[in-house]
Amino acid sequence: MTTTSAPITPITPAQKQVAEHLISGLTTSEIAAEGHLLRTSVTAHIRALRRNLHCPPRSSHPVLVHALLLHRQIPPPSLAALRPSFAADEDQQRLMKALAEHSATAAIARAANIDPADVEHLTGDLVRAAGAANATQLVGWGHALGLLGTNGQGVPEASADREGAAR
Fold first, then answer.
1. How many of the other CB atoms lie within 10 Å of CB of 83?
2. Count of C-beta atoms within a 10 Å radius of residue 78
3. What is the pLDDT of residues 104-123, one digit of tens each?
4. Distance CA 22, CA 133 (A)
5. Looking at the whole model, is its pTM more than 0.90?
6. Is residue 84 very low, low, confident or very high in pLDDT (cuts 50, 70, 90)?
7. Which residues lie closer than 8 Å to 5 by C-beta, 6 or more apart?
8. What is the DSSP annotation of 118-144?
9. DSSP class of residue 116?
10. 156: which strand partners?
11. How far apart are CA 43 and CA 62, in angstroms?
12. What does the H/E/C string look like for 60-94?
């Protein structure tokens, strides 16, 4: 478990543009195409975002989006595309939180209290149930729904556990 008390470096306008595309579920290549940027430029912006927010260098996009929203660097996404019938049960909420806080499959499985072999399948089921493009967009919606980033009373969490960056 790693947390830091170092101040968060505010993101630049270019980084904010990349972050807003990321939170909507776009991949690095899609962000490059949408923003008329080189893929290497998008990758550099994502690397800088991780550094600014004290995320491990290889943390997943859902972990990065969680940090962006937790530290209020970008606003929560619109829920317009969320399936109206979507309501995450307790197990799904635990998996969503695990995806937001961990990058490694084993760490996600531990946090969600599921078998590591089931992480990919259950994540896919959850993404489809919500109508999200991927786990990154799902984490953004989790914040917008108030399921992530608060202590259950609408108060932001002090910090997120960023253990388990992809290796």
1. 12
2. 11
3. 999 999 999 999 999 999 99
4. 11
5. no
6. confident
7. none
8. GHHHHHHHHHHHHT-SSHHHHHHHHHH
9. G
10. 150
11. 15
12. CHHHHHHHHHHCCCCCCCCCCCCCCCCCCCHHHHH
